[in-house]
Target: FAD-binding molybdopterin dehydrogenase
Amino acid sequence: MLPFTLEKVTSVQAAIAAASSGRRFIAGGTTLIDLMREEVEQPANLVDINTLPLSEIRIEGSVLVIGALARMADVAAHAGVQRLHPLVAESLIEGASPQLRNMASIGGNLLQRVRCPYFRMHDAPCNKRTPNSGCAAIDGLNAGHAILGTSNHCVATHPSDVAVALVALDATMQVRGPRGERTFPVEELFRLPGDTPHLEQTLLPGELILAVRVPGGPFSRRARYLKVRDRASYEFALVSAAAALDVEDGVIRRARLAVGGVGTRPWRLRTVENALIGKAPDRKIFETAARLALEGARPLSGNHYKLELLPRTIVRALEMTGEAA
Model:
């Protein structure tokens, strides 16, 4: 690890001012410190934001408000989250080991870097680590890589589990920076790789995430998260699905569906959602709609299996929402 300075701040404005001069935020550090040890990331100056008043978890009516510094474990264990937003709680529990959940913040989890092994290998080309150097995964070991949203420059999947749940539930995020405060959908935080895969998110220089707001309602209580992985213990998703249904009088009135492990960002499946609306929730309807998730899929040499695993995972997640009713 290369030498760096660490500055502690006690106000949001001080944090923004520090970041505006080129410093990097650090909270739980569960991703950044690893990358600094491996010298994949080499920030010279860090700003410790752990003392900022951004860790509150509260329910406003049916809306869940999560401070950016709230720890994953605290959010998952919150009674209001478990009652009104079980999908969020499940995705957090599935997303990390207990030790990591105790340290990692919600904001940091959303901004974590990709887990492609080539990203951490200095002797392999990676456009995320070194722009215009190439992508070793395209012709290399790519069984865990994306089939949706890829480009000729990057095929890495986004690793966050809770991001998939938040995108499915139309969550928004509140950020503040030198230009003031703004709110936008969590889905808009994540960029497609295109020809600039090193640009992964849309925060402006100096902007700090303040909170995430998750709307509630019947569909949020009838929601489940399913993660398929190589082993039952802590591991990143091969395919995951966040599914929420609002069923009234035996008919699907609203559907929310996003998937992980297959896209270069959390992947919202609006075509599948639209195919479910107005239908009775049964396996045949789920299977027909789930096949639409493969539109635009570009499998690699090692991940053709995801073309079969993705719709199967979606079907099972949708079935689980009925079990939660």
